[in-house]
Write a structure and sequence with these properties.
Chains A, B: This is Zn-dependent hydrolase. Chains A, B: Residues 205-307 form the Peptidase M20 dimerisation domain. Chains A, B: Keywords: Hydrolase. Two copies of one chain form a homodimer. In chain A, strands 1, 2, 3, 4, 5, 6, 13, 14 and 15 form a nine-stranded mixed β-sheet that branches. In chain A, strands 9-11-7-12 form a four-stranded antiparallel β-sheet, with helices on one face. A two-stranded antiparallel sheet of chain A has the order 8-10. Chain A is of the alpha/beta class. Helix content of chain A is 35%, strand content 22%. At the A-B interface, strand 8, helix 8, strand 9, strand 10 and strand 11 of A face strand 8, helix 8, strand 9, strand 10 and strand 11 of B. The complex binds N-(aminocarbonyl)-beta-alanine (2 copies). One N-(aminocarbonyl)-beta-alanine sits between chains A (90, 124-126, 132, 189, 352-354) and B (222, 224, 271).
């Protein structure tokens, strides 16, 4: 079994980098906090005797050699970046659970035939650079390297520049590094395990998600002297669409979710009718047909609302991640681990996107979830129990051994 | 008559300070652009032989002496600050029309019994420091000096600090400077004169306005893994209230207007349900009872929406400016000027607030409007015709002479 106390303490130590007053974490991709987090992690890895490879997008591959040099590495891992007001477990857990597996094998003098690896994928959250899960996407051939390097944050800094700045632009070509399997441990970020009082989610796949950017163009005008009829208020149009987005999710209940998370209002002055609003829409559904009908409804709502409100608009899909089904063998390895260790578990589909979605294209892949309090994530109050985190690491150990041995 | 070309050229020269790519002006209160605008204006005033006084809030009083030193000054003026994406005429016009009156009297060697003054009031727009019309409010005893000096912008800089920074914190006690009358010339900022093809609005009063700040507190959560039921989405609640605000104006048609101009969404991440939204609501009505029933409806909407969306909230009124009726003598001086000069004119109530609203408490006051294209203001495309601007300056000259002479 893994060392629950060491795992917990490392998660807490990592959480000090970018800690927020409300007990959360702000370690946004390719900031100096991200650099510090990576430095600390790699220090632990080197102490554990691992080899480190870094690719051109800053993805980290930390290897514990196997006894059979011919075999591809059996990998696990997740990401170290966080939301701007994120929690202490999202991503970090999967990375440090992987390291804990390696430490446990070291402690017990156990060798594996396949090498074991822990991967850290750059810019999973998509908070600073869209789309999320960007560098795992490049690894899997979903996006070209140049596309990723050219992504800009709101200040106009490119991902490539930010990567150079923190000194994590590596030499290894993206995607050249092949994996024999990939398992990602993560907090659930939803309420299902907690509601069913289960410890392990055996994740069989991930729902699809599409992101859209919408710019609404009305006309700046004085709030006091401009009569109500004839106004072209971009924020009123945005309000109608925010409610339409929720309505579309409700029409596709119970599986669908849809959200406006990001909104910029311009000129954002108390006494000026807003002439320009930019917002992003995030829609998810476990089936491709669901995403299709939701998108059709969204396009219709945008058209109708903008016509009725005399608003011009620009609308584009900025991300499209199809629903993913994971590899049966990897799913069974996790399920078998949970069963063998006696942890209450269930099969489930992930609501959130994960690097594993992309990696599933190029390696047999699956995920395991552990519960988080209230299903809350992307929130500074995100919280998980040390025993659940240890249970997840144990299942990961069990599954990795099964995949790395035969 | 005034010199239409000189007036137009000065407006255009002033517009170069803070000019925006789209042809507007960004000369926000107490920024370096505001300092440059003040410097330029005072240079012109000194060339015209005027005396300059500056009070502790940076209000400027530019005097052309009269022949009777016992008499109070007959004043005009407006403001030099702009909206962040403002136009070239709002405020500036009334200031430079006042200077043009003085230049015209100089050119023609005409003396007046009363001194003539042009006033420039600090922070009229309220874009950087709320409330708007702040320094004229202090002049009139509506707000204490300390309140004004302590107002903060979004970066936490106080008005007092910003004023020191640009070197316009004067010596003269606020409100100590008495005015015998005050006339404010301004672009209409609404569509009425243009619609009726009239050149001069004789402004008999200003509608009342109330501003509110509302903070909606929900819960940050993951957009993908958080089911729709049970969400506490502050932006959805904000959207409902933005529509409710418009609905309240429509229930009080045709006189009422109501707008959400300012909105901050937090954490403003594509894949996080917004846990916190702050917005301001601007409601206006020509009668106090109208403002009362609108406020009651707003409070009810906030309560109902927040209860239904499981949102906590903080709600406060941050400005309350009662409807104002101007001085009959001043109104008649303007009307008589328009009539004498043969300009098509109408009596009207101002939709926008103006420094004149406050000054009306301490001196006989009125305003005159000239048309602006499409009634558009608080917009970079704000535009007015040189002939209309000159006509307004001529009427101002006529009215000031009438008040300054007898
Ligand atoms: N797991 C997680 O928070 N992923 C971010 C990408 C997403 O929005 O699903
Ligand atoms: N005239 C003008 O733009 N005033 C700003 C104050 C207001 O919002 O009415």
């Amino acid at each position: 079994c893994t060392n629950a106390r060491r795992l917990w303490q490392r998660i807490m130590t990592m959480a000090e980098i970018g800690e927020t007053p409300a007990g959360g974490c702000c370690r946004v991709a390719l900031t100096d906090e991200d650099r510090q987090g990576r430095d600390l992690f790699l220090e632990w890895c080197r102490e554990a005797g691992c080899e480190v490879r870094i690719d051109r997008l800053g993805n980290l591959f930390v290897r514990r050699p196997g006894t059979d040099p011919q075999r591809l590495p059996v990998a696990c891992g997740s990401h170290l970046d966080t939301q701007p007001r994120g929690g202490r477990f999202d991503g970090v857990y999967g990375v440090l659970a992987g390291l804990e597996v390696i430490e446990t094998l070291n402690d017990n003098g156990i060798r594996t035939r396949s090498p074991l690896e822990v991967c850290v994928w750059t810019n999973e959250e998509g908070a600073r650079f869209t789309p999320p899960m960007l560098a795992s996407g490049v690894h899997a051939g979903v996006y070209p390297l140049e596309y990723a390097l050219a992504r800009q944050d709101e200040a106009g800094i490119t991902l490539g520049e930010a990567l150079e700045e923190i000194g994590y632009a590596g030499e290894q070509a993206c995607g050249s590094h092949r994996l024999g399997a990939f398992l990602e441990a993560h907090i659930e970020q939803g309420p299902i395990l907690e509601r069913h009082r289960q410890t392990i989610g055996v994740v069989t796949g991930v729902q699809g998600s599409r992101w859209y950017r919408l710019t609404l163009l009305g006309q700046d005008a004085h709030t006091g002297s401009t009569p109500m009829p004839g106004r072209r208020d971009a924020l009123v149009a945005a309000a109608r669409l925010i409610l339409a987005v929720r309505g579309i999710a409700e029409e596709h209940a119970p599986e669908a979710v849809a959200t406006v998370g990001h909104l910029e209002n311009t000129p954002n002055s108390h006494n000026t009718i807003p002439g320009r609003v930019t917002l992003t829409i995030d829609m998810r559904h476990p089936r491709a047909e669901g995403l299709e009908t939701m998108e059709a409804a969204l396009r219709q709502a945008v058209e109708r609302t903008s016509a009725e409100e005399a608003i011009d608009y620009e609308f584009s899909r900025i991300m499209d991640t199809a629903p993913v089904g994971f590899d049966d063998g990897c799913v069974e390895a996790i399920e078998e681990g949970a069963r063998a260790l006696g942890h209450a578990h269930r099969r489930m589909v992930s609501g959130a996107g994960h690097d594993a979605c992309h990696i599933a294209r190029v390696a047999p892949t699956a995920m395991l979830f552990v519960p988080c309090a209230g299903g809350l994530s992307h929130n500074e109050a995100e919280s998980a129990e040390p025993e659940d985190l240890a249970a997840g690491a144990d299942v990961l150990l069990h599954a990795l051994l099964r995949l790395a041995e035969p």
